[in-house]
């Protein structure tokens, strides 16, 4: 994987093969950040990266100037890799080793962007639980967005607060926003 833009543009990061991850493809990541770049100043936002895996999305935000980033994953190896990588690049990424659903149930901090990249083999109920917890616990700031990455074969348009989705190759991003 590589960092697409910002201070660390072009840097390649190689994760250990033993990690149970499926990093967002460079093509999909670039398309996602093109959307976000038109809506946010990256140095003014707070990001929560759920099911963070290799930290791919967190590194991209950090490279673009975001200083308030929290990466949550239940796998110790993933958290260790994110810590080592963010330390080597001097990136401001805070890590939390926790089950994402437990984290969402107990968190009180609001974020501008919440990005979730759960396993593609989740059933629809598990996908549905992510926006339910985010909105029930009011974890988004005003004008914030929840983005859930999933297979293009998964349809999340029936979930409350769904706004729209975009597909790139086999990846889809569903966007959820507070209804004002």
TrEMBL record:
Keyword Transcription regulation among record annotations: no
Pfam family for this entry, one: Cons_hypoth95
Origin: domain of life: Bacteria
Keywords: Methyltransferase, Transferase
Enzymatic class: transferase
InterPro entries in the record: DNA_methylase_N6_adenine_CS, RNA_MeTrfase_RsmD, SAM-dependent_MTases_sf
TM region positions: none
Assigned EC number: 2.1.1.171
GO-annotated molecular function: 16S rRNA (guanine(966)-N(2))-methyltransferase activity
PANTHER family reported in the protein's UniProt record: METHYLTRANSFERASE
Protein name: 16S rRNA (Guanine(966)-N(2))-methyltransferase RsmD
Encoding gene, per UniProt annotation: rsmD
């Amino acid at each position: 994987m590589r960092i697409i833009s910002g201070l660390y543009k072009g840097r390649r990061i190689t994760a250990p093969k033993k990690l149970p991850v499926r990093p967002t493809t460079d093509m999909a990541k670039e398309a996602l950040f093109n959307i976000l770049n038109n809506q946010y100043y990256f140095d003014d936002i707070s990001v929560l990266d759920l099911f963070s895996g290799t930290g791919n999305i967190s590194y991209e935000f950090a490279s673009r100037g975001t200083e308030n980033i929290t990466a949550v994953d239940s796998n110790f190896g993933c958290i260790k890799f994110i810590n080592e990588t963010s330390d080597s690049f001097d990136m401001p990424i805070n890590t939390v080793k926790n089950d994402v659903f437990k984290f969402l149930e107990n968190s009180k901090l609001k974020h501008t962007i919440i990005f979730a990249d759960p396993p593609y083999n989740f059933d629809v109920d598990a996908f549905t639980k992510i926006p339910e917890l985010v909105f029930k616990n009011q974890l988004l700031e005003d004008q914030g967005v929840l983005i859930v990455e999933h297979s293009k074969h998964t349809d999340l348009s029936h979930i409350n607060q769904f706004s729209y989705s975009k597909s790139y190759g086999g990846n889809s991003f569903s966007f959820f926003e507070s209804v004002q």
